[in-house]
Specification:
The complex is a heterodimer of chains A (439) and B (516).
Chain A: H1 2-18, E1 23-39, E2 42-60, E3 63-69, H2 74-89, H3 125-141, E4 148-164, E5 168-186, E6 192-201, H4 210-223, E7 233-239, H5 241-252, H6 257-261, E8 282-284, E9 307-311, E10 314-315, H7 322-328, E11 340-342, H8 349-356, E12 359-370, E13 376-387, E14 390-403, H9 404-407, E15 411-414, E16 429-437
Parallel strand pairs in A: 7-12
Antiparallel strand pairs in A: 1-2, 1-4, 2-3, 4-5, 5-6, 7-16, 8-9, 8-11, 9-10, 12-13, 13-14, 14-16, 15-16
Chain B: H1 5-10, E1 15-19, H2 48-53, H3 57-67, E2 74-90, E3 93-111, E4 114-120, H4 125-136, E5 151-152, H5 170-187, E6 191-209, E7 213-232, E8 235-245, H6 254-269, E9 280-286, H7 293-300, H8 305-309, E10 330-333, E11 354-359, E12 362-363, H9 370-376, E13 384-385, E14 394-395, E15 399-402, H10 409-414, E16 418-431, E17 436-448, E18 451-456, E19 459-464, H11 465-470, E20 472-475, E21 480-481, E22 486-490, E23 493-501, E24 504-512
Parallel strand pairs in B: 5-7, 9-16, 15-23
Antiparallel strand pairs in B: 1-16, 1-22, 2-3, 2-6, 3-4, 6-7, 7-8, 9-24, 10-11, 10-15, 11-12, 13-14, 16-17, 17-18, 17-19, 19-24, 20-24, 21-23, 22-23
Helix pairs in contact in B: 3-4, 5-6
Amino acid sequence: MQQNVQDIAAQTAELAKRHGAQEARVRVRRERYVQFKRIEQALAQIEESGSMELNLSLFVDGRFSSHVTNDVRPEALETFLKNAVIMTRYLTPDPHRTLPASELYQGYQPQDLRLVDAGYEAVDTDARAKLVLQLEQEVLKAGKPLSNLETLSYDTVTEGALVNTNGFSGYQRSTEFWTGIDLTADDREGRKATYGDYAGRRMRQDLPTPAELATRTLERLLLSMGAHPIKTRRLPMVVENRVAGRLVGMLLEPMSGSALQQRQSFLEGKQGQSIASPVLTVIDDPFVSGAMGSILYDPEGIPTQRRVMIEKGVLKEYWVDVYYAHKLGRKPTTGGPSNLVFTPGDRDAAGLMKQAGKGILVTSFLGGNSNATTGDFSLGVKGFYFENGKIGQPVQEMNIAGNHLEFWKRLVALGNDPYLNSSSRTPSVLFDDILFSGV
Amino acid sequence: MSLSRREFITRCAASTALVAVPGFLTSCVRAGAPLAPHAGVASFGSTYFARSFGIEESVLRTVMQRALSRGGEFCDLYFEHSVSNSIRLEDGSVNAARSSVDLGVGIRVVQGTRFGYAFTEELTLSSMLKAAETASAIATGAPGAEPLALASGRIPDFYPVQTLWESVGMDQKMPWLQAVNTRIYQLDPRIIKANVYFSDSSKRILIATSEGLVVEDYQPMTTLYANAVAEQKGRRERNSYNLANRNGADFYTPERLETLAKETVRRTVQLFDAVRPPSGELPLVLGPGPSGILLHEAIGHGIEADFNRKKMSIFSDKLGQKVAIPEVTIVDSGIHPNQRGSINVDDEGALGQETTLVEAGVLRTYLHDRISAKHYNVAPTGSGRRESFRHPPMPRMRNTYMQPGPHDPEAIIRTVKKGIYADAFRNGQVTIGEGSFSFYIASGSLIEDGKLTAPIKDVNIIGNGPEVLGRITMVGNDLQIDVGGWTCGKRGQSVPVSQGMPTTLVSSITVGGTQG
């Protein structure tokens, strides 16, 4: 299997050169995907597929283009490449478009990041069907009235190969296993209360048990009955680890080379300056064992490195790919984050609520957006009002807004509970004095 | 709803999302085989998939027989060949291009409301039979009904195109980007950066069902998007605008390119005067056109029948009930000429049509796909859509709009003492069960004493669907259908949509500003 995708990548790179590209990057990705879903206490959906995608970057006479196809029949691929090269020749030359400098490949040493469950092949239809059934049974056991109950499991095995014609080739393989429960119950005045919870891991054995997932999903659903907006007011805010990634993502978005070079970054010129509270340290760490964002090389074929991006609130580094590095006259780092790792605090979400006394625990965001050029943002929130550290009135249809440069100074503490389902391993976070818009 | 793979990662609550900016540089193609002219009708031997990939009637029948071999009551095959191209202008030159090809067939076996689904990217008989076998696993019994003899269906043509994208060269497309870029810089000296993205796509589909239908469609799409950054006294602002249509090269008239440049610049530089609005409940006047986002979020998703069949929607018990004042009539349409959400045929073979959802304030119907229409024992509404052959269809919106009402738009604004006016939006989202929705304003202003005053920026509006519908108090006479690139996401599947609206007053809604 390994030989196969790497061979395809190498052969396609050769083909690109034959058709007139001086240099090329080829990425081949192959995936198998199986999903089982139970609805209304019956196996309702089974999906299974295998797919392959071929991604090419072509460097032709000082010009650049990229292409993707899943039609890899030899004659179709020939025509595709021929046309791709013709198309590229129409473009304006751009000297900033190159493959990574070959020095960047030196010392590349693939290591085992523990991303593959060796037992993947042994997981069969019965095992998958049993898992969604167990999830359902654990929910039903509690005997709560529900208007809808859906349980789901899916898993993937993915392998990818990358070839840069100036001297890099890489291969990675990984597995993922996901389980989830989605619940709906009748709430006041014809409304429904809904809650879903999910877990994803590289290794099947690391998933929470069906009982754990069912218990916490049901508990949250019941607590969220009767939610409504409360009066507009200022309060401390705890954002739960599973949604804190949305907030962090908005702060990190303007740290990309393209945002900087295109003058769309409120963090332009802020390297070395304090942009957040000293409790915030963010590390881009591609080597976390078994983590969702662990990678050996980035999408351009640059071997990955661990980097401190924000240290005690001070902006240390940007994510700059090869193209924007050339345009900005900087050294490339990498185009985007692998795993985001945070220096943990000393308590979990419950502990942060205790620390704050009263406030709002945000369990999900609704819509909203953030302006990476100015730092202004506005976001819908849902969650619970808490007092004496205890969850109370459920709230929804409320909103928070501000500017990131001011907002992140209000960060009081990080939790010790990194979210493991995502490459953004955010802990729960506590902010002080946030304006919640409501009625 | 979120039990799907992509939403697992991005979101947790049961919700759907709508974004204004399509995923440029992610789709594409230059086809190997030349595409035939618009083929509304197909007789065997002449279909695109027969010519290009050898998908003859006998192949369809053999695959469907295998799909029904374990007792499924219905099956369908969805073949797709999509070819797209995009090009990008940055820092004054058109210096990046992308093409993409996507090819495959999705096979679905249905048993009541349950289904098995599999796809293959290899259109060989052995691969298709294997996928059919996988999909058939939803049923466990003796062979079901034989597929009926296949007959070609005739379909309408809601997106006539004079020149197919296959025959439009780079040399014809590149000047559009250059022209928009040049105009953006000409229009205001404060502009310091501009980006322009163009994409075109030609999607060929063939649907065959065990009930004997075979239908083929050619679905073109194009988008032109402009983004500008302006600087004034060291402060920078950015905004964007885009055009999208199921259309060919003729869509890009000089007037349209001028509108794109002008609107991009207007939206950008007005932000220098913009304020963050107050927080809390205020009256909201929605301008004509893109404000249809309100309908999309406040009611559209909530009446997609899959959510109601499973009693997951706040609208589950509201059919036949009054949901708004009599001036409110809401339509979801697949038949608007060349609109982004129009479809000659849905992705299950039901003909393109228009569906009145709310008639004079009363909720008339849900949006149905085949499974829900059968469950409710009603005719399908032509709303069964899917992102690609990789995905099973489900009820989706097309072009959603409100019919014009009696009021003069100016008169509507004059009734508001202190409130918000909004006429452009970036994105929206809704949770189906609770009915909570939000949308983010890209352009708008304060209303003070019946007049539009300072522009506003970066504000999210949040409310509850049925509540807000009930608070629509005035409907204007100036319906416009938006020509923007809206993409709707549901359960991890994206489909192109559009929307429209006359000027409308919502008496009260929560405004997510920064001033307490």
